[in-house]
Each structure stands twice: as C-alpha cells, then as structure tokens.
Amino acid sequence: MKRPGSSKHQFVKRIPADLKKRIVGMKLSIPIGDETARIIVTPKMEAIRCSLRSSDSHEVKGRQADAAAYVEAIFKSVRENAPVSLTHRQAVSLSGRVYRSWAGDLEDTMSIRFQS
User: Fold this and answer.
1) Segments of 21-77 assigned E as strands
2) Burial 3-39 (b: 16+ CB within 10 A, else e)
3) Distance CA 35, CA 5 (A)
4) pLDDT surpasses 60 at 116
5) pLDDT digits (tens, 9 = 90+) for 43-90
C-alpha cells in the first residue's frame, strides 16, 4: 500500500479485536530490510503501520512478507501466552544491543570511579 504524498510503500496490518486490549503498550521492532521500525501500540490504533522504506516492488514484497511474519508471530504468541521465537538474526541483533548497553554502563561506572 502506498501512503498519499509518498513514493514509499507502507506496511499495514489490522489489529485483531481479540488482541487489541492485550497488546496496548507493547513495543514492536518490526524488521524492515536491514533496519527495524519501532512502534508502540496505543489504545487508539486500529492497525499497525510503518514505512517499508522502498519503492522497488521486488524489495517491497520481501519486506512486506518479513514484517507480516513478525507481526503474525507476535499475535500468535499473545494468543498462546508464549514467548516469541527469534530468528538467528534477531537474536544476534538483540545480543548486540544488550552488550552495548552493558558496556556503556560499565564505561560510565569506570569513569565515575576514576574521577573521584
């Protein structure tokens, strides 16, 4: 789907009525190519929307499929009250974020110690 006034395609997935109240406040990191779209579900949202950041139809199809698979996995997980399975790529990305956060905190702690 194209958004009016933009050459880029947009991902749109309606939020099922049975999940609407349960996913409010949930933070989603939808994979869009090599990047992620971060979305927080609000009570007024009827659908999850984000830019696919491309106008190339071949690339859009792949990104649409990846985003749809991610969102459907989230919906399935919420329905089953089970943890979400991560792909290898998502697990590596998450571990990198955790490491950078830990290393940043460690660096801040060390600089405070040496300043005293």
Assistant:
1) 27-32, 35-40, 47-51
2) eeeeeebbbebebeeebeeebeeeebebbbeeebbeb
3) 23
4) no
5) 999 999 999 988 888 999 999 999 999 999 999 989 988 677 788 988
> What residue ranges do the domains of the chain occupy?
1-84, 86-116
Helices and strands (DSSP H and E) totals, the chain: 3, 4
- Segment (H or E) for 7: none
What is the rounded end-to-end Cα distance, in angstroms, of the chain?
Answer: 57
Query: Is the model's pTM score more than 0.90?
Result: no
